[in-house]
Design brief:
The complex is a heterodimer of chains A (278) and B (474).
Chain A lengths: L1 E10 L2 E7 L1 H6 L5 E5 L7 E4 L2 E3 L4 E7 L3 H8 L5 E2 L1 E6 L10 E7 L2 H14 L3 E8 L8 H6 L3 E6 L6 E2 L2 H9 L6 E5 L2 H14 L3 E4 L15 E4 L2 E4 H4 L2 E3 L5 H8 L3 H18 L1
Parallel strand pairs in A: 9-10, 9-13, 10-11, 11-12, 13-14
Antiparallel strand pairs in A: 1-2, 1-7, 2-6, 3-4, 3-8, 5-6, 14-17, 15-16
Helix pairs in contact in A: 2-9, 5-6
Chain B lengths: L12 E2 L2 H4 L7 E3 L2 H8 L9 H4 L7 H9 L3 H11 L3 H7 L11 H4 L8 H14 L16 E5 L3 H13 L2 E5 L8 H4 L8 H12 L4 E3 L10 H7 L2 E4 L4 E3 L12 E3 H8 L19 E5 L3 H12 L4 E5 L11 H9 L3 E3 L2 E8 L5 E14 L5 E5 L5 E4 L2 E4 L3 E3 L1 H5 L26 E3 L2 H4 L4 H28 L1
Parallel strand pairs in B: 3-4, 3-6, 4-5, 6-18, 8-16, 9-10, 9-16, 10-11
Antiparallel strand pairs in B: 1-2, 7-17, 12-13, 13-14, 13-15
The chains are: A alpha/beta (278), B alpha/beta (474).
Amino acid sequence: MHAILEKRLIAPNEYDMWVEAPKVASHARPGQFVVVRPTPKGERIPLTIADYDLKRGSIRFIFQAVGKTTHQMARFEVGDSLSDVLGPLGRPSEIKKWGTVMLVGGGVGIAALFPILRELKRVGNYTITVLGGRSSELVIMKDECRRYSDELIITTDDGSEGIKGVVTEGMRVASEGRKIDQAWAIGPTIMMKFASLAAKEMGIPIWVSLNPIMVDGTGMCGGCRVEVGGEVRFACVDGPEFDGWAVNWDVLMRRLQQYKEEEKLSLEQYMAEVESVV
Amino acid sequence: MSPKVRQKKVPIAEQKPEERIRNFNEVCLGYTMEEAIEEGMRCLQCKNAPCVAGCPVTIDIPGFIKALREGNIDESWKILSSATNLPAVCGRVCPQETQCEGVCTLGRGKDFEPVAIGKLERFVADWKAGSGVQSAPVVHRGEPKGKVAIVGSGPAGLTAAGDLAKMGYRVKIYEALHEPGGVLMYGIPEFRLPKAIVRREIENIKLLDVEVEVDTAVGRSITVEELRGEYDAIFIGTGAGTPRFIGIPGTTLNGVYSASEFLTRVNLMHAYRFPEYDTPIKKLKNVVVVGGGNVAMDAARSALRLGAEHVTVAYRRTQAEMPARVEEYHHAVEEGIEFCWLTNPVEYVGDERGWVKAVNCIRMELGEPDESGRRRPIPVPGSEFLLEADGAIEAIGQGSNKVLLDAFPELKLNKHGYIVADPETGATSVEGVFAGGDIVTGAATVILAMGAGKNAAKAIDEYISTKRLKAASR
């Protein structure tokens, strides 16, 4: 059991949680993820590790309540426990001195980006961070990211903060007149797709962190297969980071739809249950 | 041969096919006490006991059957459990027909069937569990002889753990999933091996003071160096652990599964009880299962129970070469699974939404025998045909999982990526590290993995004892 040590609503429907997981905390590196099963009848879902605290033996993740599992987790309070947390899983990000790096984040993907940004800064890169969201309140972790960013660009769809537009606008501004040695993009699939297309256009190599449906998260089931450079890879063990230029985005988006009906049914039933209790 | 000996096995009760295809309950209902004793009477109590030699964990088969037919079930269980830590499991999933029962003297007589050794084994284990009195475990008090880490809680790991604990070692099993049991939990379906039975046998092993730590991926959640620092020896029994795909076009279409994913969703995650359990599985109408082993049978029969109207197994050889157990094949046929022999898929055809709608297959013919001794299937040019399907499950075997192996580069692997280990002892290229089961042999059977776990336990005991002795004499 993994006790919830802190929980905070940080944006509409987005939660910031610190959970006891000493083995994960002491082995986690930027870019890795955990598989969480909140209850004994629950589903196993992958969540990217947003931070880790070795002393306290805890890890942090930030998630959006979307389906039943995340809605259920959103209702958990400090002192409650998650049944299972397995990790850290996946290959860590390639942290080294690249030179100038650009980190593009959207939605709760910003949480996954944060430890990568911090490490890249620590090893001496010049860091340009581009964070995007529909509106200002949905761009999370701005202050934390600012601390490790030489430059921080914010884009919002509605123009409530920073540049009015999507992250690719920010990427263009960030890269104007200079060479970016490596980029990362983490966020909604559609955002990563367009960030990759833009990066390719600009000739910037880019890592993206893929989020397909997973079951075990250890390479055992092959459910998370993605197509990269025409080859089938398992996101859980070969990734989650892949070369954004080479990802087949259509396959990923299609496979993410596989259980749409079941997910809807599950959520509706859960919501009806919790509302009838209230 | 005494004329009194029945020629055929005492028939065993099973759920009727038309009933069982609608539920996940166990197919075989087991013997009653009377039936078990009657079947036990068929044993000739051979002095040379070829059955024992045919058993990878060398159970004293005439011994446990003798005690059983004398009505001394407790004694019978003791004999069984001194050799196997998983009798209720073995009795259900061992391929007895090629092991103990395959060499049974009685079965050699004209028109005689061998003794139903497996069914008797499960009877004794189930009776013992049902009696509610598990014998007080032989817990080794006092200073442990050493500390051993077991990586993986499948049949190999559980067997090694149980045996080492009985010898007086402090044993801890590390399991990556949220529940121990390995393939017994995620792979073999409820209708063939009820999970309550697996849990019960694991509880019995825990009673020997074996500790189990779940949600721990060795190589990730804990490093190999940490393990080597803390333990006197390590046994690796992780299973093969990664699904193979044929690699034909359309593999990433929605509705195409590896058998591992399909079965893990159904078994470990209880997707057949969705939405009570949160993990879903698609309701499929026409399912094509590719492969001819037990896993293919399990996937096909599970798909049927989930409500599929047509389930077809496509196998590239013929029934004669099929590696599945005869019993499983017969059960599948009884349940209405269709078999397409000499058939291999060449492409998954998708609809406009990206879901599989058909499997394009090609006919095969058998040529010269290959390295496995079975005749090699060769495609017949121009013989392609379509099988309609909204779901396809590949059950064509497994490769070695790299999560642990990548974190342990000193460990020597063979050309297939499996761990090189001494077939007698399980000793690997690294001192103090032993391995057994599918991660050494490639996908095989539960009982062979158990045999490897048992041999490794002996070798580990020898290794640690010798090391202690040397250290003491210094």
